[in-house]
Structures are given as C-alpha cells and as structure tokens.
C-alpha cells in the first residue's frame, strides 16, 4: 500500500467555531460604549437587541413566541417546568444525547426514562411507544442529536396517543426541517442553542419557542423579567402574565444584549451556512460510504438536515483496531470523537456515566451502536479538497488499523 502517497496531516482546525460577522462586532462595540448590556431598563426602552432577536427568531420559525435565555439547557429546563414536570415526574428521552439534556431533566426534578436509538441515530419508535405506554411518563424531551431527525409524524402520533407533551431539543437542527416543517415547531416548545459549536455562535445563549400563552408567560417570568415583561416584543397577552406573575420565582436565566447582538447578526446567515455545511458533509459522506466496513446512517427523504458534523460506524473493527484507528486519525489532524469511551470525555458521554440519575445505564442497543460510532465536526472553513484529504486519511488509517489487527 502506498502510504507515502497519502497526505500527512489534514491541516485544518476541525474545532473552529463559525466566524463572527463584522455587523455583529460593530453592534457589540456600540453596546459596550453605551454600557447598555442588560435587556431590561426601568425608565426607558433601551438596546432591545434581545427583544428584537426574539421577535425575529419566532417569525423565522412561524411560532408565536420566543424567549431569550442564557443557554439551551435553561430552555429545556423551563420547557419541562412550564409543561408540568414536578419532582419525580418521568421524562422520556433518547439515550444518545449531550449532558445538558439529562441535566435539564434533573434540574426540573424529573426522573429519566431512557429510550433506545436505532443505527440511523434517531429515537427507536418501537421502544418509545412501549416506554410511553409502560413508564407513566407524560413528557418526551426529544434531542435531534447531531442533526438526525426522527420520523416526526410518527413521534407526534405516539405522543398524541399516549397523551405525552413533546419538547424538542434543536441544538443541532437550527435551519433543519422534517417534511418541510422546521424542527422546534412540532412540540409544545422548541429549544435552541447559541453556544459556539452550534449553528449560531454567540458563545452562550438559548431560545425557547412556543405558541402557548401560558408557557411563554411563565418562561419569561422564570427567566427573570423583574416585572418588565412589557418590554418583550414576542410576548403573550397581559392576561397570561396576570395568571402567573405572583406565583413564579425569578430564576435569572436571562440573555444579555451582547449575546443577542451576536446571534441576531448571524440569523440571516444560517441558510448559507447550512449549504456550506451540507456540501462538506455530503462530500465526506460519499467518500466514506465507498470504504469497506463504514456505515453511514440512512437519511429519509422527508429530512432536510443541516449537518455541522458527521457520524459513521465502524462495526467490523475489534477494540484494539478501533483504538488504533482513532489514534492514527488524531495524529494526522482528524480528531474523531467517540461516544463509546469508558469515561465521559469532552462533549461525549453515555447515560451509564450519569451517576445522578435513578438508574444509570446505557440501554443495550444504544450501547452497541455508540461503541463503534465515530463523530467528526465539520468547520465552515472546510473546502472540497480538505474533504477529499480527510476521506483519504480515514481510508488509509482504516486500512492500517484493519491490517494491524489481523494475526
Ligand atoms: C449543546 C447541546 C445542548 C445544550 O446547549 P447549551 O446551550 O450548551 O445548554 C443541548 N442538546 C444538545 C444535543 C447539544 O449538543
């Protein structure tokens, strides 16, 4: 094998977050100069970056209300609280997800009911149906993890049949749709993240969207509106606030004007970013799909994804070969994340490591799938030739690891 012909290293930072546009920088400097960083003001309406972002965000999804928060984790937490989760309530969730999701359930006092995933990395609908029936859960916190969208018609139908409130975690699906309908509009609420490694980079930040007057009013009050909720543009009628304002504690989960300015300047860029991400994703996917032993998830026709990362499975490698493959890729600048590690590492963890939940375990099918699942970030800076080089590095490291494993 002509290893000499292979490129030595990728030479691209796969961890680079989306760049901040100039318009955002200018607005942030204006805010810094004025000092008006808090979203509310007692005497006059100032800044309004958060209020404007909420209005634009809700409109972009066709939802009535959006509430700016300090993180997507806070959005999921408030979604659970405002839809009736109390101490000990069971909450269904797909067991392939990121730590803030089980964290939000714990924060709300809920008890986690872990649902299997399929080889296509979406929630297993049969297991969901069974656990929806048997667990007594009234909530499903569905993570569109790594941008993989389950059959939402089926999910909605199962929730309806078992009287379950659906909450969508859209941290990886901003700009994505199922059968033409944006994610975040199927459930009672949709939760979005503006953390640096999502589709809009404001460092931190979250959004809760809903069409429900009471959920919106309560989320605004919980977020810490100091009774200045009248400064929200995308807000429910006064009557909804009257119902809740004296009964709702202030949890101080607000978004600042700086975060909103950063996010607001990037909202119009999401479609263009999506095209770039998907172009790189599809190139890499085609390249990997042609390699023996590599399996890519099937993507249904109805799914319009936005893939800022790519996942693939290497079921055929044994433990040693798999470890050698990961190390070989890493040494050549292709940092592959792995959800199968014993201990949580960086942005990866398995539910068996969530020692704070009632019954920490990884459901067996999910464990089998995660054990050989590779996960790669796709930075916007990746060009077509970088994608080709990346595939070629994976191909040669796969061949090397595979042949080293043979006796
Ligand atoms: C990042 C992420 C979140 C939470 O986002 P934060 O804004 O960091 O709280 C939720 N779900 C998934 C799947 C994520 O990757």
Structure description:
The protein is α/β, with parallel strands linked by helices and 407 residues long. It folds into 2 domains: 147 residues, Alpha-Beta Complex (Aspartate Aminotransferase, domain 1); 247 residues, Aspartate Aminotransferase, domain 2 (3-Layer(aba) Sandwich). Helix content is 39%, strand content 13%. The protein has a 7-stranded mixed sheet with strand order 1-9-8-5-4-2-3, with helices on both faces. Strands 7-6-10 form a 3-stranded antiparallel sheet, with no helix packed on it. A hairpin with a 2-residue loop joins strand 6 and strand 7. The protein is globular. It starts with 21 loop residues before the first helix and ends with a helix. The mean pLDDT is 94. The structure holds pyridoxal-5'-phosphate.
Shape: globular
Main sheet properties? 7 strands, mixed
Number of helices: 13
- Give the CATH level 1 class of the largest domain: Alpha Beta
Helix/strand/pairing category: alpha/beta
Q: What is the CATH architecture annotation of the largest domain?
A: 3-Layer(aba) Sandwich
| Overall number of domains | 2
- Please trace the helix and strand order, writing H or E for each element: HHEHEHEHEHEEEEEHHHHEEHEHEH
Share of helical residues: 25-40%
Distance between the termini: 18 Å
Provide the CATH superfamily of the largest domain: Type I PLP-dependent aspartate aminotransferase-like (Major domain)
According to CATH, what is the topology of the largest domain?
A: Aspartate Aminotransferase, domain 2
State which percent range the strand residues make up: 5-15%
Mean pLDDT: 94
Q: Low-confidence parts, pLDDT < 50 over ≥5 residues?
A: none
Radius of gyration: 22 Å
Largest sheet: spatial strand order: 1-9-8-5-4-2-3
Ions and ligands: pyridoxal-5'-phosphate
DSSP, total strands = 13
